[in-house]
Amino acid sequence: MNKTRIMSEMRSLFGEITVRRAQQTDPAELSLSAELMDHVHDSADNLLAIQGRPADQQRYVRGLRHDVRLILCMWLMDTNLAARIVRAAYSVGTQVCR
Fold this sequence. Notes:
The structure is a single chain. About 70% of the residues lie in helices and about 0% in strands. It is an all-alpha fold. The protein has one domain (about 5-90). The model is unreliable at about 95-98 (pLDDT under 50).
């Protein structure tokens, strides 16, 4: 899947404002916790469970807390982000695990 298509899907799923904010946010500046990362992970699992049903996915994403929605968007736009988020969480002494 090319970057243009990915960005189009992200805008459709998360909305332009969230996508723009996700592009501009440095993961190191986020206030991360194990609880927050659990919510993000669970949200990603739930999106996968409704894969192929864009309207249901959009409705689900709209119901997420803002911080979960932002980090999930960042994570999906950049598949290498998970490692950086975990490093950022550990750098402030937060343990991220399931």
